[in-house]
Each structure stands twice: as structure tokens, then as C-alpha cells.
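Researcher: Here's a chain I'd like modeled. Treat it as a single chain, no partners, no ligands.
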Amino acid sequence: MSTISSEERLAQKTPEATFLHILQEEFHFAPRVARELLTTAQDVLHGAGNRVTVRPGQIRLIVASLKAPFGPPLAATDKAEVTLTVDAGSEDAVVRQTQGGESLRQGRILRLTAEALEQGGVLTHEDLAKALGVDARTIRRDVQSLKAEGHVVPTRGMVKGVGRGQTHKVQIIALWLDREGYDKIERWVHHSAQAIKRYISLFLRVVTLHRQATAVAEIAFVTGASQRLVQDYLDIYEAALTLPHRRAKLEEELARVGGHTPLAVDEKKGGRRNEPGESVCQHRKTHFCQRPAASAGERVRVVGGPAYLRAVG
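Model: Modeled as a single isolated chain. C-alpha cells:
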């Protein structure tokens, strides 16, 4: 008799599991390569979701704007429409299986509040309760537990006291740069290792593009991240350069993924700055490709390693 759990059966029914099966069985990719391709696809599609459509597991809500002052009734405040990932598929299934339903819900609270913040919105406890299908009392209890663990939970009424760079995504990068193990980070942020590695992958791409003198808006466009998150990642990157142990970790990882580029490009030393009209796109191949919304005939060529390409007209 099979000893597979119900959580494992659910995980096998997700689109991610189907995608991995196709890559391994039909295209004969090794499991590690298949997982890397899945992570890359998630990076692109997760970011594109806000610009294109709502994916399975996501909802759209009208919430208070981040710029709206706290105090006036919600009905009288500016609003923002945000896309929230309530169910992240296999990533959430792993958390439920390894950490339990309460931990999964708390991880979702961190994810949803961060996603809203990145899109210029801020959630109330009632918003979270509606999205997660629980009552507001449960949300208040979970938020208190998260705060006791050291998390900053940017809900309405609290967000004004939340400084930049305090969301769980940024704290994940800080712990990773401090060489903390995935097990510890997983438990603290109530996320799966797959989700954590996806955040780290995005951070490394942001840093690589930044070192290629790419503007924040362009980095946000090609990675699918919000400009706010890109700036948060760049802030922790700049801070890491002042700490020898974090800088060493960063340089090791950039060299490992093939995205290492000098800290600054000096034309006098033979370096090359962006030409007018050039932009950067991320791609896994070393051949020419089309960037989303590229102009007719636009191509890309490799710059700064096989994982990163610069678009040229």
C-alpha cells in the first residue's frame, strides 16, 4: 500500500509538477536542470502576472493606496488594485507538508502584504482574512506571532512605521548573505526552499543588471519585479558592499552563476557603457532572442555571462 500523504498527492497535481514531469520525461532533462528551468519560468511569469492577467491561485483586490493617509475612513481614501498570490502551487504544498497549515498561512500573510506593498497598496486584516478564508481574529493572532519572530508585517495602520528594506524578501537576502542555511531561512519566513531560491535568483539578476549600468525602471521591466522591490534589492546590495563577509558571499555567487561583472565600467580602461537606446533583458540561452515588446528587428547579444543579455537595435 502506498504511504504517500495527501499533501504529496496534491503537490503532484500542481501545474509545476506537470511541467517538471514533461521536462524530464519528454525532453529528457535531468531533475536538477528541470527544476532550474521551472524556477526561471516562475521568475518571468510571476512578474508578468501583474502586467498581463491573473494566474491560477491569484486574486485581484481593491485595497487602500500606500499613499493614502491613515485616519480617514477607507471609503474616503485613495485605492489601488493589486494582484495577490494566495496559492503558490507546489511551493505552498511543500510548506504545508513540512511545516503545517498554520505556518503556511503565516507565510502567505508575509507574501500577500509584500506583494500589495510592491504594487502601491496596503492590506487590512480584513483584506487578509478575505483572501485566506479565515476570520480577522485568526489574522490578528498570526500577525502577532510573526512580529514576535522579528518580522515586520506592513498592514494598514502599521505601514507608515515600516522603513524600506524591511519586507521578508529583503530579510531573506540578508540572511542568505550572512550564509545562513536554507533550513533556518525556511522556518523563519514560513516559505519553501524553492521560493527562497527564486527570490535569491531575482536578487542576483537585479545586481548583475545594475552593474551593467541599467536603470531601475528597465531592471523592473525585464525581470518582472516592481520598481520598489528592485530599489530595495539595490539598497541591500549597496549595504552589502560595506560588509566584507556579505560582499565575499555576493561575489562568489555572481561568479558561480556566470553573472559576474565589474563594480564599475570605465571606458578609459576599455570598458563599455550602454549606448543610447540599448536595454537589457534576461535570458537563459546564448543565442539571439526577442525581448517582450521589442521593436521590429531588435535582437539581443550576450553581455556579462550566459544568463544575461543586452538588447541592441
